[in-house]
Structures are given as C-alpha cells and as structure tokens.
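Quick one:
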Amino acid sequence: MATFLYKLGRLAFRRRHFVALIWVALLTLAGVGAASAPPAGTTSFSIPGTEAQKAFDLLEERFPGQSADGATARVVFKAPSGEKMTDAGHKATVEKAVADLADGSEVASVADPYQGKAVSKDGAIAYTSVRYDVSGMELEESTKDALEDAAQQARDAGLTVEVGGDALQAVPHTGATEIIGIAVAAVVLVITFGSLVAAGLPLLTALIGVGIGVSSITALASALELGSTTSILAMMIGLAVGIDYALFIVSRYRAELAEGREREEAAGRAVGTAGSAVVFAGLTVVIALVGLAVVNIPMLTKMGIAAAATVAIAVLIALTMVPALLGYAGRRVKPTGAKGRLLGGARKKDAAKDAAKDVAKDAAKAQGGPAKANLGTRWASFVVRRPLAVLLLGVVGLGAAAIPAASLELGLPDDGSQPTSTTQRRAYDLLSEGFGPGFNGPLMVVVDAKGSEAPQQVFTDVSDEIKGLDDVVAVTPAAPNKAGDTATITVIPDSKPSSVQTEDLVHAIRDAGGAIKADTGAETLVTGSTAMNIDVSQKLNDALVPYLVLVVGLAFLLLIVVFRSILVPLKAALGFLLSVMAALGAVVAVFQWGWLSGLMGVEETGPVMSMMPIFMVGVVFGLAMDYEVFLVTRMREAYVHGEKPNQAVVTGFKHGARVVTAAAVIMMAVFAGFIGSSEAMVKMIGFGLAIAVFFDAFVVRMAIVPAVLALLGKKAWWLPKWLDRALPNVDVEGEGLRTAEERGSGPDEDRELVRT
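Output:
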C-alpha cells in the first residue's frame, strides 16, 4: 500500500498539470450537469416492509387518480372574540376563499368547511382542506402565492387565518453560519501552517471535492429522487473530511521536507505514509455511511451513499491533487519548523537559503541542549505517567454527559415541532384548540375486503370496533372505492400525534384488525403521517443493533489489518461507543430538554429525530476512526521502528497531536456551521456531529487512548502468529519505504520504479 501510494504521490507531483486538468474537467462536467439538469421532482418517502407503506400502496392501487402523495394544506379560520364562524359575514368570507382556492390549476380538491362539518363545537374555528395534484416541492410559486393570497384576503376581512400542511414546504437553507465555519477552518489552517499558501491547499482541494460531489448529486437529483437534505449532508461531511485529509498530507509533506528530502521525494513519502492512513480512514467512513442501507429506508440509503461518494472523492483528491498542488506551490510551502512570512519569517528572494538557515538554527539549538518539547509531547508524557487517573476521569466525564440519553424520545417532525412564529405552528395550535390535539394527527384505516362476501358489513364492523377503543374521539363513516371492495376510515385520536397514547391506539387498531381478518378474511391496515412516523421509529430502532454489528464488525476487521493488533481496534470501538453516547446525551439535553436552546437557535423542543441515532452512529463511527488511524499509526510507526511502547505513545503525539487537534477543530467548525440551517434535521445533525467530534477527538483519542495504551504496554500490539501470517501486509507505517531508503535507493532509482 505505502509503496503504491508513494509512486502515485510522486507521479502526481511530477505530472501536476495533467492531474490538475483532470480534476478541473471533472468539476466543470459536474457543474454543467447540475446547471442543465431538470429540477428535482418529488422525493418519495417509503418504508418498505411496514404496514403503513403497504396501506399507502393499496390506496394507490384501489383509489387511482386521487393523488395520494400530493401536497395538502389546511387553512384554519378563527372568528374574533365573541363572534362565530357561522355568522353570515364570516361564512361569506370563507366561501370566497374556498372558491378562490378551487380555481388553482394544480388543485385536486377543496373541502367546504360548512358542508364537511369542519366547524368547532363553539363555532369559533373552522378549516378547509386543500389537496393538490403534485407534491409540496413540485408546487409552482403561483400556486403557493394563491394559497397565501386567499389567507390574506380573509385576514383583511377581520378573521385570524393560518395555513398548515406541506404545501408551503420550502427548500432548507443553511444560513450564514456555514460560511463562518469555513472561515474558522481557514484561520486554524493558517495558525497550524503559518503560511497562507499551505493553509489554502486543504481548503481549495476540499471545496473542489465538495463541488464535484454536490454538483453530481444535483445533476442526478431528479433521476434518483434525491432530496435537498441529501446535498446538504454530503456538503457537511465532504467539507469536513476533505479539509482533514488534505491537512494530514500537507503536514506530513512539511515533516519530510524538514528531514532534508527533495520536494518530489517528500510528496511521495507523504502520500505513502499519511496517504495510507487517509485511505483506511476514508474506508471506515464509507463503510459506516453505505452501511445505512441495512435500515432499508430508501431515503436514508440514498443519503448515506451520496455522502459516501463525496468522502471517496475527498480521498482521491487528497492522494492526487494535493501532491500536484504542492508541486505548483514549490518553495512557498516550508518545512516543519521553518517560519513563513506570515509569522515573521525573513523576506528574502532565495527561499532555499531561508529554509537552510532555519534548519541550521535548529541544529545549533540541538547542540546547546534538548529542544523544548511541544505541547503534544508534554501532554502525552503526563498521560503515560498517570494513565489510570486520566482514564477514569475521561470515562466518568463521558458517562456523565451520556446520562440524558437515557431519556431519549424519538419521533419525526410535524407542524407541532415548528417554531411558534410560523403560520404552520399557529395553524396546528388553532386546530388543537378548536377540535382537540388528536385532530392534527388523524389515522387513516384502509379496509381491504376484496375477498369478503359482504364488504359493506365488514366496513361497518371495523368502524364499530374502532369506536369502542380507548383514546378515540371520532370515527368517520367508511368511504368505499368505485369497486366497493376497499374503503377508508378516518380516526381522530384524543391525544397529540407524537404521544405514547396515539402510538398505543395504532397498535390497538392493528390488533383488532387481526381478529377481523381471522373472522372475515378482510385486511385492516393503518396509515397516514402519524402511523408512518410510528413505523419509521420502530424500524430504525429494530435496525440499530444489526447496523452496529455490521459497521463496527467490518471496521474492526479493517483496523486489525491496519494496526496488526486485537486490543487496539477493540479499544477504538469501545471509545467510539463512549463518545457517541455522550453526544446523544448532549443532543437530548439541547433539543429535547431545552438546555442552551436559545444559544443553538432551537425555538421548539420536542422528540429527537427518529433517524438521528442511527445516522449519528454511522457518521461518528467513521469520523472517530479517522482520528484513531491518524494518531495511532504514528505510534505504531514508532513502535515498529524500535521504540518502547510508552515512548512510542509520546512520539505519536509529538508528530500527530498538533495536526489531529487542528483537524478536529476544523471538523467541529464545519459541522457547527450547519446549526444555522432552517431544516430541523440538519440543525440537529450539525450540532450532534460537532459535539461528538469534540468528545471523541479531545477526550477519547487524546486522553483515553494514550492512557489505555500506556496501561497495556507491549500487549497493545499483540497479534496471534497465525493471524499475523494470514493478514495481508498493507504497510500503513511506510516500513517498505524506509527499507528502500536503507538499501540506498535514491530519487533517480525511485523514479525508475514509477516509470515501470
């Protein structure tokens, strides 16, 4: 592995014009594809294998032409205090609004509240339901404008009017904080490298990689039904890993220069060593993201694959375009320890002499006494002297942060989770006020009596059975299709959609349906957005353990190959579990309990997104293994080259702590930038990933990992001999390169290897 990547790095450095041309061409091609692609159509949200999805598919088959997946809107009217919606003036206003809405070209149906008995018992509130032929994302702006105009005209007539439903659904935006995150990353890079040129390389390559990835997603969005959230998450993860991977390559390149190597040779060795770590770190992220497919929710699978593709692009760019740009940068990228102009370096035309003077100064300091140890060395030395105390403090601290996770409540967002400043939330509250909280989450019961001898009697029996259940406020008469073999029944619960009582009611209806099927052969299915949410949450919960086993198992095997150890990968996996549980605890504290919610821009607390835990597990595991690979490979490299276990830990921190710290701060800044998103899921994931990186990088990898390795000593690197012989030697530490150097092969001989 190291030898192949070494050759690739030198080839990219020497053929930089060709490499740069390829990546620019790919970026241009993706950009043209995105610009010319048709707008993204409807994003189907299906959950195969669930009862709610089966009922939805049955509706599509038995009730054709009803646009079951079309957008809906509820326009809610409230009369002024002391007046009623049945007053002649208010009734005329509502009827005019209904007539105006019915004129829309994309409108499938509009219900008259007075004919449909959609007026509250006290007469203060009424509503009309509007159904459209297309989804909320496909509605034309003129249709949305007509909806808002009708509401505004009713307001002008003296009524309080709010609009709920997904007809006003907007494309999520990330806000200015995303730019702030990139700016913070730029500042950290400048501080780390002390040079604008060196700092600009990781940013430039990351932006090119994200540009290719996101443009490709945009170009394929319509054909593959990719939602807007998919590109945002791909951008989030692609930016973070793209900057980090390039950062590690550039840092190793500068270290190789400091050892006196020529620039082409330094680029090859940087890609051969740090590049090997990048490949395996990227593989763990890709495994974790692609593994989301085991949940069998197409939307989540597409999000994972799209993000994984962006990570793969980031790896390829780090291995090829970074060394190519290093070739363009030439002497403007200085060796480690040499000051650039930004930090007060000499302003001389001859950069080679400047670098030589820096090296000479370092040699003079070495003759006068040992150089002052850097912060990473001092911290690692402290940890190996007090490993047990550091380990206990880290584990207890993460355990305390994870306590709120015990109160985790899962759910999917509805209008009730919107900020109170939105018309959707106010419409939700008005409906609850006038008709009860369960009115915002009606259940649709689909009765398939095709195999029954008396379908109408079956419909009546099902309705009567449901009326006798607890937590039921109302049951509408069965509405059969034209064939008379299938009917829909709307059930209004007494509790709000996200409550445990409503979930129990769904299960009770399904249990009753099982008894009816045994007696009549008719099948009773429950669907609707509330039932869909319940089924999604259950499906995600059921998939969490198999997903963990698959992803952690594959990554564990991969890390055994990388580190040639059993205990180091095991320690890495256990450390990940600590950091992800602590991060979930922080998410619960902020988004469910409301701690620091004002600071995070969380206007409304509620259940944590159902897909948040499993998505977070996948992404955080991949990112956690990034730091494990980058930091521990330097320790492994030192150990393989003859250092004692504790000294190898200190050496690994000496060379890697500064860079890993910078990488973690950059990744936190990029993820935190998405907290400003208008999409609740993106906001939550941005915060969760940022805090997870903090816990994992600074507590687990920087404290718990060296403490455990210090306690284990040589046992940390133990591997059964039979397994050592069976495993392929991927040479992440670059031992093959060192061996070649010891044989005396110089740059000219290595160049011959590249040509052959």
